[in-house]
Design goal:
The protein has 209 residues and is α+β, with helices and mostly antiparallel strands. The protein has helices at residues 3-9, 23-34, 53-62, 68-71, 86-99, 108-118, 123-147, 160-167; strands at 45-49, 74-81, 151-155, 174-183. 44% of the residues lie in helices and 13% in strands. The chain has a four-stranded antiparallel sheet with strand order 1-2-4-3, with helices on both faces. It binds flavin mononucleotide (FMN). Flavin mononucleotide is lined by residues 11-12, 14, 66, 153-157, 178, 197.
Length: 209
């Protein structure tokens, strides 16, 4: 298997069978998310792994009745930070210092640059910045899933505010940015399982200057 075969194999799955993934498979995918690069290393998101059937049904309603939310083995919601406070930056710097065995004072310059970059941003801009990081991790998870022959669907077709309310995210200073469903394709009921991939030829998107 190589990466191009993997990426040709995957598609945004619309219908899933009820075959569950193992905890080990899910943990591997979560680990690719954890290892993803993020701006300043801040990892400004949390992953909500929705196991409650009732919540899944409510999420489906909030996602224009898309069946993946109730059919897939797993539903992961990327909940991104809506603010970056000095306390959050300090907690991160403590973590960096203890992990790398360094004095906190050595990270003073880093602290200043984080705060000057993020300290004055409006909520909307923090959400945008944090979402960018979440989407990079989402892409990693999708590629890893394909490599493991696990089907997935990236999903932003949902009402973000409703999902925030359902998961109680606002009071945690989080916001639902995007979701990822995981499981196994239902080839009998998903016409897209056999549909040809639609992609522009490379010459239309690659410019050498
Ligand atoms: C950020 C993002 C959000 C998406 N949201 C949805 C969604 O809500 N529902 C869905 O069925 N597909 C969703 N898709 C899947 C795209 O429609 C799909 O990736 C695209 O048509 C290309 O097809 P392929 O991924 O099957 O090759 C989303 C894709 C991305 C990257």
């Amino acid at each position: 298997m190589n990466i191009i075969e993997d990426l040709n194999w995957r598609y945004a799955t619309k219908r899933y069978t009820n075959k569950p993934l193992s905890e080990e498979q899910v943990n591997t995918i979560l680990e690719t998310i954890r290892l993803s690069a993020t701006s300043l290393g801040l990892q400004p998101f949390e992953i909500y792994d929705i196991r409650s059937t009732e919540l899944r049904t409510q999420l489906r309603e909030a996602a224009y009745n898309q069946p993946q939310l109730t059919e897939a083995s797993h539903v992961l919601v990327f909940a991104v930070w809506t603010e970056v406070t000095e306390a959050m930056v300090d907690e991160y710097l403590q973590f960096v210092a203890s992990t790398r065995n360094r004095e906190l004072a050595q990270l003073d310059g880093f602290r200043k640059s984080i705060l000057s970059y993020l300290g004055n941003k409006e909520t909307e801009d923090i959400i945008k910045w944090a979402s960018n990081q979440a989407y990079i991790a989402l892409g990693k998870a999708m590629a890893a899933a394909a490599q493991l022959r696990i089907d997935s669907t990236p999903m932003e077709g949902f009402n973000n505010q409703t999902v925030d309310e359902l998961l109680g995210l606002k009071e945690k200073n989080l916001h639902a940015a995007v979701m990822l469903t995981l499981g196994y394709r239902d080839t009998e009921n998903d016409p897209l399982a056999v549909a040809k991939k639609v992609r522009k030829p490379i010459h239309q998107i690659h410019r050498i200057i």
